[in-house]
Amino acid sequence: MANGALQFLLNDEIVTLDNFDPNLTVLQYLRNIENKTGTKEGCASGDCGACTVVVAELSNTSKGLAYKSINSCITFLGTIHGKQLITVEHLKPASQLDSNEKLHSVQQNMVDHHASQCGFCTPGFVMSSFALHKNKQNPDREEVLEALAGNLCRCTGYRSIIDAAIDQTNNCANDSFAQNYQQTVEKLSVLNQLPAVQIQSTNKSYFAPKNSKELSTYLLAHPNATLVAGGTDLALSVTQHLSSIKELVYLGEVEELNAITVDDEFIHIGSAVPYHKFTHLLEKEYSDLGDMIERIGSMQIRNNGTLGGNIGNASPIGDMPPTLISLGCSMELQCGDKTRTVLVEDYFVDYKKTVLAPSEFIKSISIPRANKPKAEAALKVYKISKRIDDDISAVLASFYIELTNNQVTAIRIAFGGMAAIPKRALATEQVLLNNAFTKENIDRAQQALTQDYQPMSDVRASDAYRMRVAQNLLEKCFIELTQSSASSTPHQLIETRVINHA
What is the pLDDT of residues 105-128, one digit of tens each? Predict the structure, then answer.
């Protein structure tokens, strides 16, 4: 197994590091080592967006560059290998020959719309807007709101910032990055052909395998290694809890773990694929599912966060596991050269405990396609949180129901936030299965929920509130489905809903 140094582009300059602390974040590297202080630290948890930078990486589909905004405060430096890292200091005007042009067009729009006051959050907003305009020249308002949802400002009230980002920035297509586009592609192509990065720093190590064979071989020799893909939750153990991870293994370069395949029956998503790369596939199968995924953190979080990480973290309030359980999804696990398949519902054992064996890892997740006649099947998903965007669930409910002549012929109900693990409501299901889909039976099912769950109280909600919400969501599902069947066309029946409480 060949060792390799960490190499990436900082703007257009190649940086090579053969010795660094694997726990070092991109933000710490920029501010403390490169003295790029335009990138700010606000929360060190990926919530405020002040630390937003942009990463350009080679696209597997277009063979060109894909730009994405990320939270540098919770991104480990090693994950930047083979990519271009862009900060606010690197933005150049459309024409560097014009001495009157001092700012990049995205920056100039912020000035023209008086969109900055204290200025602390401004670089983050600029970088989020820059990434948006690099991917879409003239975004509409909804696209702007989605791109900026992960950036907080305490001064302007957002209107001027939104106006600045909505304003057409045609010159963005002709900036210094556009001028150097081909050279950047060529440089990154060379870096991506380098051997796997493997660093030993004092008493810490970092390894970024290129394929599942390298990964499985390494894990057999290092069963206690910590796996990281997006790191949007794991990094908090370093930045918030001041822990030290001794053996860090990055999954973002493992070819098999970054693959997406679609066949007649399933969508197979590699465990290291970020949300932004597969959301559109799930939207097509289950309409409005993207609305729920859009509420899994901010754009910056979804650009790095992965489905495998959301499951592997084994949090009782992870947003995706309840839906995966209700859809009957399965996972492929690998240890050495052996693989096994388990249902997502069987993966969780107890709080933060799973069936994953030492040296074993999640390889992929298989999601059934919506192949049943649309009039027979419905998926409903409800997320309850204190605010719509970028917030953790108090309760997440997912209902998969098949109806024939108003008879429940199949049903899977799963909740998050109601127990130590995301789990099915088996007693509730039995009340409804093979019975008429009526209000009377829904009332009985609401009572059965108390047999399935004994929720706890915490800072997000009390146990009584959680139970009442869960019961109300069951009734909401019934009302929406029965109203839909009377007034909607069949293709509208497979859908999801997201709601919020004040």
Answer: 899 999 999 999 999 999 999 999
Is the CB of residue 285 less than 8 Å from the CB of residue 278? Answer: no
What does 315-369 look like in DSSP terms, one character per residue? -TT-SHHHHHHHTT-EEEEEETTEEEEEEHHHHEEETTEESPPTT-EEEEEEEE-
pLDDT of residue 9: 97
Question: With contact defined as beta carbons under 8 Å apart, do 69 and 84 qualify?
Answer: no
Q: Which of 464, 472, 484 is nearest to 446 (CA)?
A: 472
Q: Which two tokens stand for residue 97?
A: 């020959």
Q: Residue range 447-471: average pLDDT?
A: 96
Question: Would you tell me how many other CB atoms lie within 10 Å of the CB of residue 3?
Answer: 12
263 Cβ partners below 8 Å, 6+ apart? none
Between 288 and 421, where is the model more confident?
Answer: 421
> Which pLDDT tens digit goes with each residue over 199-236?
987 799 999 999 999 999 999 999 999 999 999 999 99
Determine the Cα–Cα distance for residues 298 and 230; give it in Å rounded to an integer. 13
Please name which of 273, 498, 304, 286 lies closest in space to residue 395, comparing C-alpha atoms. 498
Looking at the predicted structure, is the pLDDT value of residue 17 above 60?
yes
Q: 351: how many CB neighbours lie within 10 A of its CB?
A: 11
DSSP reduced 3-state for 495: strand
C-alpha dihedral, 474 to 475 to 479 to 484, nearest 10°: 0
Residue-wise over 362-375: b if at least 16 C-beta within 10 A, else e? bbbbbbebbeeebe
- The Cα-based distances of 147 to 6, 52, 116, 122, 426 in angstroms read 29, 11, 18, 14, 39
Q: Are 305 and 230 in contact (CB under 8 A)?
A: yes
